[in-house]
Design goal:
Elements lengths: L6 H7 L2 H8 L5 E3 H15 L2 H9 L6 H28 L4 H22 L5 H8 L3 H6 L3 H20 L1 E3 L3 H21 L4 H6 L1 H5 L5 H17 L10 E2 L5 E8 L18 H6 L2 E3 L2 E2 L5 H9 L15 H7 L3 E6 L11 E4 H5 L17 H6 L5 E7 L33 H27 L6 E7 L4 E2 L5 E2 L9 H4 L3 E5 L1 H7 L3 H4 L5 E2 L2 H9 L2 E2 L11 H8 L2
Helix pairs in contact: 3-5, 4-5, 5-10, 6-9, 7-13
């Protein structure tokens, strides 16, 4: 072969193994400051489209002030990233590349979920993420997620692995960190006119800056969980003013929003069973949180759990169990706090012994329950049914095929790709199915031979179905739309229960505002249970409770 042959001909005749080895040769050497600067700029450019879209929608983006604010956000993201990596490099420069690779992979996946569902990765959302089980994780899978990870995650990782780091002395790294600090602070000071706008939208902005939104808020959430893991302090002892056998069922719904219940005036017949059962819909109930774990604490606590460390005091099921009530907790969900109860059963446990046609979805929670209640030796029986309910995004998987009443249904986890009609149909089918499950629980109580019995249904939080560009739940309470906060609170009472407590439907509807904090005291009232923590003003059955107290 002549040495005068052109390079392209030489390349064509070079064995592929030689070309592959050449391609895999280490790339150019760069200093640590150069790598940090490039990584910070690429992080700001590649993973923050939702941040700049959010800002552009609320700014006059073509004005001087709008452009300055957008530029300040870019500088802020790059500045924080570069400064953090510079401090990491001062500890060990070997950590810089692995951290950049890990951030690229995580950012790619997180970016997909932010763009697909409009979520904000604050502390509450990180709690929601950590308390999502494997089954729910699989429903979030979509091929586009793999594309994001490959292009925006694996791609940058390959580039980082190709580049070699040149040793850099610590004094030079310290000087670089100082320059970054001076530049960042200088820019932010010079752009002080943007502070007011950024401060106004700080919560939303903080939930969109990667990787800091999920790393910082994960640490915040985990620290609160560690604090909550300590032994719960027992509540004051209680006594019963009546010994009649009583059954109370508490059904905790999931992601059920009030406005989609026909009991509350929704145009679609989503509650045909409950409407005919004599159940009462309590008005104006608002959740105290937009994610399950925090909302459960509100439902099960005797006071506002936000006033103390989460789980630091005894919760309703444990309190009742300690006082001789037979507590049965059945769950087709997750996020439950630590409890001390007589019976705890998950849906998969119930599936093993279930027979018949209603052995799937939330119907499982009622499997064998009537016999379990009848066989209990206790005078008081408390049952909690924690539903899977209307948890998205795969709403179509939450109901048996026979409950696909509203059609067509959205069958994708990319909710923004569904038509509003199909998304609403899929969601409304979950409410229709919840109506069926709660109706079955009421029928079960009706079969208890005239025994005083009552059922309470309340959802943990609501759900967004595309309003304001939001989907699912978990938006911070200060920013959450009403659909994520407004929940149904429904009560049914047997005739024997109404006579015993001198209460009827008209009594329950006298109060015009309700809360999740009423559940604890209402259950105490239903069991005729009294202690120093009992608050009759929070007991929905209080009309009869005051008479019982005078015995």
């Amino acid at each position: 072969m002549s040495v005068d042959e052109p390079p392209d001909k030489l390349a064509a005749t070079t064995p592929w193994r030689v070309r592959l080895r050449a391609a895999l040769q280490p790339g150019p050497q760069v200093g640590v400051p150069v790598l940090i600067g490039a990584a910070a700029l690429l992080n700001a450019a590649l993973y923050h489209a939702p941040l700049f879209t959010f800002a552009s929608a609320r700014l006059d983006a073509l004005s001087y002030g709008g452009l300055l604010t957008l530029a300040t956000l870019f500088v802020l993201v790059a500045f924080v990233t570069a400064l953090a990596l510079a401090f990491v490099a001062l500890v060990s420069r070997r950590l810089v590349k692995p951290l950049c690779m890990l951030s690229a992979l995580l950012n790619a996946g997180v970016l997909y979920f932010i763009q697909a569902y409009g979520v904000l990765l604050d502390k509450t959302m990180m709690g929601n993420v950590l308390n999502t089980d494997v089954v729910e994780v699989t429903t979030l899978w979509h091929p586009k997620l793999l594309l994001y990870v490959l292009v925006l995650g694996v791609g940058p990782c390959l580039l980082l692995s190709w580049v070699r780091l040149r040793p850099t002395r610590r004094p030079r790294l310290a000087g670089f960190a100082g320059l970054v600090l001076v530049f960042g602070v200088g820019w932010i000071y010079a752009a002080s006119s943007t502070w007011l706008w950024i401060d106004k939208h700080a919560k939303s902005i903080g939930g969109l800056i990667l990787p800091w939104s999920y790393t910082v808020n994960l640490a915040r959430y985990q620290s609160s969980q560690w604090a909550a893991s300590r032994q719960a302090e027992p509540l004051p002892d209680a006594h019963f003013v009546g010994d009649e056998r009583t059954v109370v069922i508490l059904v905790i719904g999931e992601s059920a929003r009030r406005r989609n219940f026909s009991l509350y005036g929704y145009a679609r017949a989503t509650n045909p069973v409950l409407s005919a059962s004599g159940a009462v819909a309590l008005t104006n109930t608002e959740a105290c949180a937009t994610y399950t774990t925090e909302a459960l604490l509100c439902i099960l606590s005797h006071d506002d759990p936000g006033l103390r460390l989460a789980g630091s005091t005894e919760l309703l099921p444990s309190y009742l169990q300690r006082h001789g009530v037979d507590v049965i907790w059945r769950s087709n969900n997750w996020g439950e706090p630590p409890l001390k109860v007589g019976t705890y059963e998950r849906a998969r446990d119930l599936e093993r012994t279930c027979t018949g046609t209603m052995c799937s979805h939330d119907d499982l929670l009622l499997s064998g329950l009537a016999q379990r209640i009848r066989s209990s030796p206790a005078r008081k029986v408390f049952v909690v049914l924690h539903q899977s309910g209307s948890h998205g995004p795969a709403y179509n998987t939450k109901v048996p095929p026979s409950f696909e009443h509203f059609k067509p249904v959205c069958d994708s986890v990319e909710l923004d790709r569904c038509t509003p009609e199909s998304l609403l149909n899929a969601y409304d089918n979950t409410i229709l199915y919840t109506d069926h499950v709660v109706g079955r629980a009421i029928d079960l109580l009706k079969s208890m031979d005239g025994m005083p019995a009552t059922l309470l249904y309340i959802s943990d939080h609501g759900e967004s179905l595309g309003e304001h560009g939001l989907y699912l739940h978990g938006t911070p309470m200060a920013l959450a739309p009403d659909v994520q906060k407004e929940v149904p609170f429904i009560v049914w009472m047997s005739e024997g229960f109404q006579r015993k407590h001198r209460v009827e439907a008209s009594t329950l509807t006298r109060t015009t505002a309700h809360s999740q904090g009423q559940v604890f005291h209402s259950v105490m009232g239903a069991f005729e249970m009294r202690s120093s923590i009992y608050r009759p003003q929070l007991d929905i059955y209080a009309a009869g409770a005051s008479a019982a107290d005078g015995r």
